[in-house]
Amino acid sequence: MPQMDTYKNRAVYIEFIAKEDFAEIPHKERFTIVFITSGSMNIKLNDYPIKISAPTILCLSKDDRVEVIEKNKIAAQSFCFHPDFFNTAYFSEEKGYMSNSLKIETGLSLFKKDDVGTGVFAVTEKAYPKLYEWFFIMGTEVYAQSDPLWVCRIKKYLIQILGLLEELNSHSEQSPVDLVLEYIHTNYSDKISLEDLISCAHINRVSLNKMFKDLTGFTAMGYLLTYRLKVAESLLTHTDMSLNEIARATGFEYDTYFIKQFTAKRGMTPTEFRKESREFAYYQH
């Protein structure tokens, strides 16, 4: 069932289930994220047997088939969203509410099932608190609709969850650089210093930056800035959050510094980027 946005009188095609019983997953015509927080279970996913132990996140597309064979003290919650959730109308001062063809790209690879991807992602000890917090806030906003930007807030946390899972899945080793990447992808919204990254990697600054440049083309702090701006782009495109809110959500202490860095790296201001990305999607549609 869609949620009715009481502020804007529209249907929002999302649903949060606080106690997932696995009786009706995946949810019809939706992407479904199941966060298993305790216990273990044996399932067949598309006829392939899988044993799952908490904490784990299960990413399901509408075409997946799930059969629960056995559950052992399992506790889980789920969030599902229609593929068009990120295509909801946005407001233009000139034209009012406009539908568009904005497409989220972050994290969609998590829902693909092939020889590499199973849709089952173990949650690391360091990532668990953030994922749990973001999931909790999404669920709270679905029911509370605390202010007119509640949908934007859910989009924000969904983008962060999918982005973190995608990054953790692409760096599964435990080299010094992988340890720092996990730290950045989990904590980029917080204040991070070079000393924090050096401490995480257990190597000196020169060695860390050399290894980072070899792998990513950036220094450690340069990669942090690049990743923050990448998340900011998604928030600018898919939400109506203010620049100050986006700055805080991506680890910039002041919106003026965020605007300065974004403009220097992207060649346009955040406001110009938001307008251009939405107008492009609208006219393409």
TrEMBL record:
Keyword Cytoplasm tagged: no
Q: From what superkingdom does this record's organism come?
A: Bacteria
InterPro entries in the cross-refs:
Homeodomain-like_sf, HTH_AraC, HTH_AraC-typ_CS
Q: Per the record's keyword annotation, is Transcription regulation included, yes or no?
A: yes
Q: Which residues form the HTH araC/xylS-type domain?
A: 178-276
Q: Which residues belong to the signal peptide in this entry?
A: none
Q: Which UniProt keywords apply?
A: DNA-binding, Transcription, Transcription regulation
Name one molecular function that GO assigns to this entry. sequence-specific DNA binding
Q: What is the name of this protein? A: HTH-type transcriptional activator RhaR
